[in-house]
């Protein structure tokens, strides 16, 4: 019985249509590519453009190299067309403060959330003082 189940699965897998996966149509050519890095390891710069319209660029630099406070900061952007035809441009900075994306498709933080964050930040010392008393 187990043999028949395994045989049925093998036949089903062998007869599956995978032509859409194997065709060269799903391969996107790289139209342009550039990559540079500083010999001392303190930075890099790269960019590429694909045949399907995707463009990406990034520049990285090590801030405070050769110290305990050395951090990498990367600035870059990505441009592509969304499946619905909308052009998308994403700009970002990634550093010790985290990943900070901007773009028309990135949701904006609601005003009430920003006000709440400001309120919490301005009242944090008071809350910490109360916590120390207890």
What do you see in this structure?
- Helix content is 30%, strand content 37%.
- With 134 residues, it is of the alpha+beta class.
Average the pLDDT over all residues and give the rounded result: 84
Quaternary state of this entry equals: single chain
Order the strands across the largest sheet as they lie in space: 1-2-3-4-5-6
Unreliable residue stretches: none
Radius of gyration, rounded? Answer: 25 Å
Q: What's the β-strand tally?
A: 6
The main β sheet shows up as: 6 strands, antiparallel
Distance between the termini: 69 Å
Q: What is the structural class?
A: alpha+beta
Percentage of β-strand residues: 35-45%
Overall 3D shape: extended
Summed up, the helix count is 3
Helical fraction equals: 25-40%
Compressed to H and E, one letter per element, the order equals HHEEEEEEH
What labels describe this entry?
alpha+beta; 6-stranded antiparallel sheet; 3 helices
In short:
The chain is of the alpha+beta class and 134 residues long. It is built from three helices and six strands.
Fold blueprint:
Elements: H1 2-14, H2 19-22, E1 30-37, E2 43-50, E3 55-63, E4 71-81, E5 87-95, E6 98-102, H3 111-133
Antiparallel strand pairs: 1-2, 2-3, 3-4, 4-5, 5-6
Signal peptide: 1-16
GO molecular function: structural constituent of chitin-based larval cuticle
GO cellular component, one term: chitin-based extracellular matrix
